[in-house]
Design brief:
rod-shaped; about 160 residues
Amino acid sequence: MDALWPSPLSLTDIVAVLGFLVALVGLGMNTFQVRMLVRQLRLDASIRLTDSNRRVVSVAIERPELWEAIQIAEPRSSHDGFRRDRLIQLWFNHTLMVWKCHQNGMLEAGDWEACCRDTRAFMELPAVREEWLRVRDFYPREFQREVARVSHGAVTAAVGP
């Protein structure tokens, strides 16, 4: 038995072991708090994206003529075309925010998949495709590639490196 435990623990040894245990408990608490912070940040991102989405959708609901104009590629009068194009760009900007949240791990996979389905459907609209080809160079290349990937050929022009 002496070979396994050669001498009794001194007070210094006991203090060191207790200090180590306290440090482990502290590390565990910090890990828990960081996990809770990440959950809170994800929830905050989700709330902000939901608010942004609500604003984009409310514009389309309040102005049904804009929604109808998005569905065709025909040029509208300058004022109607301008408002239509701004609504489309508002949606692109919203989608960019969602993509950035996804890139930063702030969005759950199911939410990103839903956004991808919306993007695919939206990019099938002629006016949206036309506007995307006109403004896409203002968006990050990685986002352009993601829009091309998600839209499955709805956008036919190639995105460069």
